[in-house]
Write a sequence for this structure.
């Protein structure tokens, strides 16, 4: 939306605008290109949430921006910290009262954010709390960005910064393709937030056309596939979208992605005790992925109210991983974080509205 249009309408969120659009709009009012760059860096380098903090802008421009635009797209409902102090979960309320959760995980050298792209999720994965709540709507670009900037501000107060972003929170990122990737482009913009593309991972349950589109765009951000089963019979029970795009079609898209990008794929596997952690499933997965440029993240299932499955026992995890090694497939057992505050993979949902 141009500045002139914004004058006669409800305030536009400034994070909707890319830097080129911002520069074009400012030029209509006689402001030079460097003003757009200054605003951009206040937004994405200094994380300001008040136009008055943009102190190197002329006062009339700051006043004009405040009249036409808003920088707010959400408010904080609650914040929880895990017992070990390494995980923080924030519940955000959006302007239409939808709620989303975002998680900060602290590791020795990394500060990783798990961010949401939708309110709810339409994929319906049976072991996922977000899938159990159903789908409400896609998040806008500002709503996705605001999650990252909130934590960037908080970490900045501790002389720390966001080092990694995973789009594995609430929602299917590739179901909200345009907004998700527009937000990602802001995060990797070298004039703005300037996070390396390879520090960002997008997770998908397997939307085949979107995976092929992503491959064709030659993006450098990493891609993770939530697989969780190696046969259609087993995956259909866990991942309903598999009935639309079964494993053979998904694997064709994955191989296409690797050919187009020469990038390694990650496969996510939630280990459910005596369900998908059998040697038979490990062997089927080994045959499925053998020779592929990939890595497998093994994640003992995190509990949710709507699913009765349990996390795999340690000896079964070890046996499963050993079987993958026999097929020449590398794997890692992911460290579980924030389980005590329901901040682990598959646990995010709008708990505040559910519990009131």
């Amino acid at each position: 939306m141009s500045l002139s249009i914004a004058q006669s309408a409800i305030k536009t969120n400034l994070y909707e605008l890319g830097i080129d659009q911002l520069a074009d709009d400012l030029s209509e009012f006689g402001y030079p290109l460097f003003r757009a760059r200054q605003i951009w860096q206040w937004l994405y380098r200094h994380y300001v949430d008040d136009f008055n903090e943009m102190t190197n802008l002329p006062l009339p421009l700051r006043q004009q921006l405040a009249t036409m635009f808003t920088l707010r797209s959400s408010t904080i409902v609650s914040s929880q910290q895990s017992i070990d102090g390494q995980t923080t979960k924030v519940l955000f309320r959006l302007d239409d009262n939808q709620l989303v959760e975002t998680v900060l995980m602290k590791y020795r050298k990394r500060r990783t954010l798990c961010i949401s792209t939708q309110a709810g999720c339409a994929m319906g994965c049976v072991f996922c709390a977000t899938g159990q709540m159903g789908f409400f709507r896609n998040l806008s670009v500002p709503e996705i960005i605001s999650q990252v900037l909130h934590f960037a501000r908080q970490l900045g107060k501790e002389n720390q910064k966001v080092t990694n972003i995973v789009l594995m929170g609430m929602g299917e990122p590739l179901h909200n393709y345009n907004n998700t990737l527009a937000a990602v482009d802001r995060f990797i913009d070298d004039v703005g937030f300037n996070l390396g593309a390879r520090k960002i991972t997008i997770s998908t349950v397997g939307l085949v056309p979107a995976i092929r589109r992503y491959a064709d765009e030659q993006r450098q951000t990493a891609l993770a596939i939530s697989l969780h089963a190696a046969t259609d019979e087993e995956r259909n029970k866990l991942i309903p979208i598999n009935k639309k795009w079964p494993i053979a079609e998904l694997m064709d898209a994955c191989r296409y992605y690797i050919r187009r990008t020469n990038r390694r794929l990650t496969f996510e596997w939630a280990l459910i005790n005596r369900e998908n952690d059998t040697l038979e499933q490990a062997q089927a997965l080994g045959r499925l992925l053998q020779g592929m440029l990939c890595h497998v993240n093994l994640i003992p299932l995190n509990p949710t109210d709507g699913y009765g499955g349990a996390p795999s026992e340690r000896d079964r995890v070890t046996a499963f991983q050993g079987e993958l090694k026999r097929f020449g497939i590398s794997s890692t057992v992911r460290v579980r974080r924030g389980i005590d505050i329901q901040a682990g993979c598959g646990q995010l949902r709008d708990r505040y509205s559910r519990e009131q």
